[in-house]
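User: Just a sanity check before I run the rest of the batch. Below are the structure tokens for the first item. I only need the designed sequence back.
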């Protein structure tokens, strides 16, 4: 299959036949709105019943060691499934991802073209959302990600593979931006001078969490590292966050980055790629709801972490803004894009979100204090 092209029906049929699923292939279609992997919903007829599966091509330009990613994911999902079973949870395979092994017993299939594929049980009766629908939903999202952090907290020995080293290291992300500006390979820096200046003006804050981490004031934990709103599946009936997905980046990290990324995506009043910036701001009602849900579940937080919750939302939003900007300058090689300038639009929304959070910083801090006190 052509690099980054969409798979045909025949290819999907052949690829799925590498996995331990039975019955007859009916169809497959592209699925979801993730920026990294290529995702397909694949439907089989099994004994006359329609069964869906989730087939994904791992982006091996982003995850250069797909076998390590899958080794982590197998460990994480089995660990969670064991815990859920021990708790007597019914429907374990709706409450965590379940990896379907290949016919050779491997957690990933390496095809003849060099692509890496994985298969999951399809979680039915639950949905992901690109934009937040209600404060109640935001609270459930905060609670779900806190629950996930609790579940994986003891996965420390051996240490999980670092699937993308320095993933949320804002200082290194800023250095990469500066290198991309210096190179300006596509002569695009002139289009984003305002955005570059905005980022540069805040550079003195980029090392804040890293420094506190080095001093031992903020601990390393096992974290998800990609807690955007559409990486948690919400039950269509109850609205509860039942299954945290997109586990490629589960690895040692800071709980604060997970909290921050929830706030980045689930307090946004508009889409991540909204072009009308007047619609883009961070909603305090959503922030309050996430903080409540998260703090209720995250009883493990240390004083150092508690002090930085509100700041983490600004920092991670800035970090993702820097990454969109860098990708634009580098020719849109990392994030999937659907139109020219897509990464600039995304960068602009992130910087607008940072501004909105800065403007409301005192109120956000007060909300955190109240949520922690509950
Ligand atoms: P990406 O890394 O590209 O964001 P994800 O793993 O988040 O890919 O998957 C993309 C989308 O596919 C998700 O937002 C979700 O809607 C859907 N999805 C992923 N895994 C499952 C699953 N096991 N069952 C049902 N839908 C899923
Ligand atoms: C990517 O895979 P997805 O779409 O859930 C990215 C995140 C960014 C996010 C921005 C592995 O997440 O880090 O925050 O886009 N994932 C990776 O929307 O880089
Ligand atoms: Mg995703």
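Assistant: Here's the designed sequence for the first item:
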């Amino acid at each position: 299959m052509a690099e980054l092209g969409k798979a045909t029906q025949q290819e999907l049929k052949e690829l799925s036949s590498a996995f331990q699923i039975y019955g007859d292939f009916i169809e497959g279609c592209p699925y979801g709105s993730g920026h990294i992997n290529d995702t397909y919903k694949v439907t089989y007829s099994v004994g006359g019943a329609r069964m869906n599966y989730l087939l994904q091509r791992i982006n091996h330009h982003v995850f250069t060691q797909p076998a390590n990613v899958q080794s982590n994911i197998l460990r994480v999902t089995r660990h969670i499934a064991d815990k859920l079973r021990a708790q007597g949870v019914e429907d374990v395979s709706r409450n965590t991802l379940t990896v379907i092994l290949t016919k050779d017993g491997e957690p990933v299939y390496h095809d003849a073209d060099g692509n890496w594929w994985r298969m999951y049980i399809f979680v039915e009766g639950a949905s992901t959302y690109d934009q937040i629908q209600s404060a109640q939903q935001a609270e459930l999202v905060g609670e779900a990600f806190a629950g996930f952090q609790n579940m994986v907290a003891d996965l420390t020995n051996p240490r999980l593979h670092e699937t993308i080293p320095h993933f949320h290291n804002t200082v290194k992300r800023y250095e990469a931006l500066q290198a991309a500006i210096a190179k300006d390979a596509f002569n695009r820096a002139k289009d984003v001078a305002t955005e570059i200046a905005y980022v540069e003006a805040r550079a003195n804050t980029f090392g804040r969490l890293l420094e506190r981490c080095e001093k031992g004031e903020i601990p390393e934990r096992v974290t998800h590292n990609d807690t955007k709103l559409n990486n948690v599946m919400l039950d269509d009936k109850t609205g509860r966050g039942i299954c945290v997905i997109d586990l490629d980046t589960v690895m040692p990290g800071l709980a604060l980055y997970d909290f921050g990324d929830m706030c980045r995506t689930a307090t946004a009043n508009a889409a991540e790629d909204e072009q009308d910036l007047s619609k883009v701001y961070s909603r305090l009602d959503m922030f309050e709801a996430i903080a409540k849900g998260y703090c209720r579940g995250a009883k493990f937080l240390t004083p150092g972490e508690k002090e930085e919750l509100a700041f983490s939302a600004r920092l991670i939003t800035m970090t993702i803004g820097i990454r969109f900007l860098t990708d634009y300058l580098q020719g849109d090689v990392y994030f999937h894009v659907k139109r020219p300038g897509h990464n600039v639009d995304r960068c602009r929304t992130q910087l607008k979100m940072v501004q909105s959070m800065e403007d409301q910083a005192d109120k956000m801090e007060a909300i955190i204090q109240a949520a922690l006190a509950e």
